Backbone:
């Protein structure tokens, strides 16, 4: 096991939806100092209040690591507008700025010059190539993907992704990741050696985003209130896809789909409703309105109980199984068990292979029907799914 006792100071760049929660778990991990950087004092102050509230709730439940109190942990937090000052002595830096390649490349170029030469530079990108993000950085061997899932204090998975990353950097990133506590059990760091868009979990789930985006357009065309789609979904997850997308940020959903549109297939292009909402600045929970409406303290204003009767659970699962089979075909992952375990740790829901073993023939037909109706031929069943041969890849 690699020694990470030298990792004392953490810096998190970007204090938005993800950065503030990553900062929260970095504090809970007991590092000596955690610096949080953003471009406005207002964002930083909001993030500090959010973290304070989050830690207090965890403390009230008696779930803070022993010897820690919220007050003690908050003393270790520093808010910074000046990147140079914030990373000058940081041993481990985690980037959580928007999902735009040029922004990230520019930041990693700066971080290479401003931070100590030993410090590891991790990116929380949801989709992008780590090699590309590190392209302008003077030490790509120290750049690594570290993809968290929200809510970060709860969900156990972190995907650790290799670009031009050295073995030592991979090991330090895994050890640091495992030190971040998770309230749902032991933190799970999955090592991903072969770069591909969306790594494991987002790659498996992204076709379902295309489906949801397509359903939103269909609901609008038929005059059905959009949030009724969540009522179709109520029995599957606690949160339906409309509320979930709002919670994560519609701009992030759109950037993600656009990235897959560019890297995998034009069939991933965001639909009309999603594009319109983002253009209007209705980005979800963070702006108070997206597909649904949100209170100032981030709660859903109302839930629709009336169904849209559009959502097809078999198709939803079929899309996941097909993309997961492609990951096996491409050799990104060697066994389907790894994929199912990653999805369970990421979202606390089962992966597609359990039910997929029994249903893949029926699900192939669902995919074919979807392709016929949507014209999105990327989603035709791949060879491994069609033949059922994935069953031999446990
Ligand atoms: P966000 O828009 O909520 O937050 C981004 C923050 O970065 C903003 O506060 C912004 O002011 C700040 N920022 C922009 N440029 C900056 C700079 N140069 N220096 C410092 N701060 C800067 O975005 P987010 O949802 O937190 O996403 C951040 C990253 O995490 C993205 O790469 C995203 O793909 C990834 N991610 C997001 C989710 C999610 O569900 N939202 C999940 C996993 C990973």
Residues:
């Amino acid at each position: 096991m690699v020694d990470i006792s030298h990792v004392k100071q953490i810096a998190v760049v970007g204090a938005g939806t993800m950065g503030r929660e990553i900062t929260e778990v970095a504090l809970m991990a007991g590092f000596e100092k955690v610096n949080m950087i953003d471009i406005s004092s207002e964002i930083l102050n909001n993030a500090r209040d959010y973290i304070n509230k989050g830690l207090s709730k965890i403390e009230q439940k008696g779930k803070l690591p022993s010897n820690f109190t919220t007050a003690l942990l908050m003393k270790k937090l520093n808010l910074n507008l000046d990147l140079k000052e914030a990373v000058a002595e940081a041993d481990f830096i985690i980037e959580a700025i928007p999902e735009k390649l040029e922004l990230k490349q520019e930041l990693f170029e700066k971080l290479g010059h401003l931070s100590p030469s030993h410090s590891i530079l991790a990116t929380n990108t949801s989709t992008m190539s780590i090699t590309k993000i590190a392209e302008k950085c003077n030490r790509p061997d120290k750049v690594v993907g570290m993809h968290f899932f929200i809510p970060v204090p709860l969900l156990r998975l972190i995907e650790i992704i290799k670009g031009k990353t050295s073995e030592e950097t991979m090991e330090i990133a895994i050890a640091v990741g495992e030190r971040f506590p998770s309230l749902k059990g032991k933190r799970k760091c999955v090592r991903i050696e072969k770069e591909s868009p969306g790594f494991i979990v987002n790659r498996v789930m992204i076709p379902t985003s295309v489906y949801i985006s397509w359903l939103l357009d269909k609901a609008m065309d038929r005059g059905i209130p959009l949030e009724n789609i969540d009522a179709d979904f109520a029995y599957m997850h606690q949160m339906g896809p409309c509320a979930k997308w709002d919670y994560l940020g519609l701009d992030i959903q759109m950037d993600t789909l656009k990235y897959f549109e560019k890297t995998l297939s034009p069939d991933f292009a965001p639909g009309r409703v999603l594009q319109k909402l983002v253009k209007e600045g209705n980005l979800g929970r963070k702006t108070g309105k997206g597909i649904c409406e949100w209170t100032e303290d981030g709660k859903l204003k109302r839930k629709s109980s009336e169904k849209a009767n559009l959502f097809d659970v078999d198709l939803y699962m079929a899309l996941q199984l097909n993309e997961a089979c492609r990951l096996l075909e491409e050799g990104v992952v060697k066994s389907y068990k790894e994929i199912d375990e990653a999805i369970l740790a990421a979202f606390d829901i089962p992966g597609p292979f359990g039910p997929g073993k029994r249903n893949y023939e029926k699900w192939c037909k669902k995919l074919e029907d979807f392709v016929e109706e949507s014209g999105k031929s990327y989603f035709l069943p791949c060879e491994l799914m069609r033949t059922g041969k994935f069953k031999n890849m446990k």
Remarks:
- The two ends are 28 Å apart (CA to CA).
- The first strand starts at residue 9 and ends at 13.
- Residues 13-19, 37-39, 43, 96-99, 103, 107, 124-126, 148, 150, 248-249, 252 surround nicotinamide-adenine-dinucleotide (CB under 6 Å).
- The chain has three domains: 9-192, 201-287, 313-392.
